[in-house]
Specification:
Low-confidence stretches: 1-18, 40-46
Mean pLDDT: 93
Shape: globular
Helix content: 25-40%
CATH superfamily of the largest domain: Metal-dependent hydrolases
Bound molecules: 2-acetamido-2-deoxy-beta-D-glucopyranose
Amino acid sequence: MEKVLPVPSLSERSGDRPRAKRRFSRRLVIGVLVLLALLLVSTRVPTLYAVLRPLPPHATTALSRCRSLSLAPGPPADFHKRKVSDRFVHGTKPYLLKNGRIWTGLENGTEVVHADILLNKGIIESIGHIGHLQLKNYKDDVVTVDLKGAWVTPGIVDLHSHLGVSSSPHLLGASDGNSRHGPILPWLRALDALNTHDAAYELSVAGGVTTALVLPGSANAIGGQGFTIKLRKTAERTPTSMLLEPPYQINSSFPDHSGPLRWRQMKHACGENPSQVYGNTRMDTIWAFRDAYNTARKIRESQDAYCADAFAGNWDALKDKSYPEDLQWEALVDVLRGRVKVQVHCYETVDIDDLVRISNEFEFPIAAFHHAHEAYLVPDTLKKAYDHPPAIAMFATHSRYKREAYRGSEFAPRILAEHGIPVVMKSDHPVTDSRYLLYQAQLAYVYGLPENLAIASIISTPAEVMGMDHRIGYVRKGWDADLVVWDSHPLALGATPKQVFIDGIPQLDSPHFVQKPASFQRTPRVPNFDKEAADTVKYEGLPPLVPAKSSSGPVIFTDVKRVFMRTGRAVREVYTAQDAEMGAVIVENGTVTCSGAYTSCVTPNLLADAEVVNVKGGSISPGFTSFGSNLGLGEIGAEPSTMDGYVFDPLVQKVPAILGGDGAIIRAVDGLTFGTRNALLAYRGGVTKGITAPAHRGFYAGLGTSFFTGAMNRLEPGAILQEVTAVHITVRPYSAAVPSISTQIATLRRMLLHPVDGDAGEWFRGVGKGRVTLVVETDSADIIATLITLKKEVEKAYDSTVKMTIAGALEAHLLAKEIAEAGVGIIQVPSQPFPAAWEMRRILPGLPLTEQSSIAVLLAHNVTVGVGSVQPYDVRNLPFEVAWVALDAGGEISKEDAIALGSTNVEVLLGGDIEADGLHDMVVTEGGDILDMQSKVVAVISPTRQLVDML
Ligand SMILES: *[C@@H]1O[C@H](CO)[C@@H](O)[C@H](O)[C@H]1NC(C)=O
Ligand SMILES: *[C@@H]1O[C@H](CO)[C@@H](O)[C@H](O)[C@H]1NC(C)=O
Ligand SMILES: *[C@@H]1O[C@H](CO)[C@@H](O)[C@H](O)[C@H]1NC(C)=O
Ligand SMILES: *[C@@H]1O[C@H](CO)[C@@H](O)[C@H](O)[C@H]1NC(C)=O
């Protein structure tokens, strides 16, 4: 410690007065001279001037505001010394989770520790072996849970969500995601629209999502500010109480904060979306960006000039000036000061290139490009972005829905990772259901993203990209107590939370779970796609998808573990290799001639001229059948010129007389497009058959058709499997496209009981007589009940049994008994339900929220059930989806029945010619069976075409 020395007073020191007097006068002269000199130079040396003149009244504020310009966002230095979280809810008990297998997020996502975790006061208090001694201060308060080795990860972090702003179910009154008031709106804030009643909060938490960055939509070049929320309910019930470290601007126009700043988030978008909304071109959008940033730059420069004067004490120059600021532009000025995480929706090379140039012109970093379907083609451009390469936030297999997504690839995550670019998987909820964000990481892993990065892609990496990694995204002492306890390895298909903690609070009241096979606790094996990934880059996203070769000669598949075959309507496992037995399947001219033990199938003669393919423990199974999307009716959904288009709807418009007026009925077969990328990818995924109805917007669809997904044109033998399958209509709530539900039902009743003249009448009479299947697309239990009543009415009139299938059917579980009794079939689309609209709000969510899934409930009532896909690019994943449905049923659904859910059942329910022999292709998988994520489809056995396609 320094001592404070007493300063002698003037009178004490002035013992020698005359000498002192002389010195004093000399000092006076010098002092006066100095003062004069000071006065002379004071106009030029403001600091000195300032010393002598009082500061103007606004100086203190101005100086503190100017000083705050040099502050950077981030947590305070002592943040991790906190003992209690700012989000701690009083009364929350400490939790001791014993014996977890913990993925911590550390060591580049490779660290897994077997340990206990103590959660207290909303934070992770300790990790390791936690004994009684450590707990003695908590008395009996601690809730102890033995995890018995279960996998634990930090909570899932969704970097791109519209949860709460584009609400579910979608209702006009809660559709606040996009403003249409201009391309540049940096002053809008997603927080101001956050609906606290979105049905997805609870569902997404049940999928392990604990934190989401809620962004405005992509209709604008600059759509506004995003906000990070935690998804749990709060006692306050307000949007504000859900926020995680909100920036200080939320309740102050120009906060003059002296402490560390908090990160802000800003949404940008380029390409098709902002263009289409404002009738712009890409050139207009990019100019809008530059113009906006130029405005912000000018404000920043005048602030800097003002502050230069203020720091220099040049108050005269600032006499009539206030600090330059503008409430509309302050957020964009903050971008230029590097205090905002800029989240950019951008797809294509041209858009990415544009934004990278803008980031360099105005000198601001981009946190991430979102969607960015072509980012994997331009890694070097990403590396040229200002300050650091942006992360890429992607979908796994969600592509080709519009032109700028056409070159999207399932290999993009691995390719970007190989270039060292941070990879994030995101939901864009409700575009994809954030409850299943983990599934996107699983798919990225299947297609080659390394395990550590795949798990990090939905946890630590997004936490870092949004500037929150000091408290979420890791299991570390002092981090937020957001954890998920899983029922399997997180990358195993169907992994489901057994419990989710947010701020130390368990979120699942009475979670349901099933026992998973032991193999699901290990890192799943995945196929090798090195060649496919290399080809994807070589062909700039459009690698050839046609089979490498086709063979009509004999082919011997060896090391076959299981063979599943169709037997009429069912699927049966006809061969299972015993322990060390080598299984074999012989195919000649596209027909399986023997399946069983190698020794019993393979003869020396055969070996002489057969091709031998080792499938390494693979299997043979029936090809899957797609329904529910417009697969086969065109290439890019949002590009009319690539699509068949929509039929006339006699309920809302006049059908031209030349077409037959109200008696016309359209056949989907006439609008088929072959060789589309979605169809060929479905084929390579084991989905060999597509059944599709004519594309329609309203009530009236037409006649469905069944086709071979691997065909390149309609005239190829076997391209059309069945010209007409069933009659399709849709009953949906009242909208611009359709009159009331009751009007639609009345129309259907009349069409069935009093068929019109013409083709349509004939087909509807066929339905009435029970010769033709009627497929009605609807989800509402009320509409399904009405259709059951109508079915009985029609059966009475015709003295028949009407074949009726409901497609969609997300509320069907509410009427399982009645549906079974009425002999109605169900195709659930999609396999994992989501309450996107009011008419499907009563979904049965399944594990961990309910014991059973809707599909399991229907099957338990002996209803024939099939599974469909909403989007044509999802069809390739159909085998994974039925496998997942079976896993959720915890062994109640066998592999055979699961395969039937995606093949024979779908065909039966859609009027498919199920009994016809020789129509049904078989799929050969390597490394596992068709339901395993580790397997890869390597060949298709085609009896119609009498050959084997080698993929
Ligand atoms: C992180 O992991 C990836 C994939 O396993 C690896 O390629 C990369 O080099 C690792 N990075 C560091 C810094 O270790
Ligand atoms: C304003 O918001 C901040 C969080 O950004 C919060 O800490 C503060 O208490 C709020 N002030 C008022 C007056 O509500
Ligand atoms: C395969 O087809 C060819 C040509 O049609 C025929 O010559 C051959 O006998 C067939 N092989 C078998 C095993 O049926
Ligand atoms: C379903 O079918 C099985 C076997 O045919 C039968 O045992 C069971 O009772 C049926 N369940 C219901 C709910 O009808």
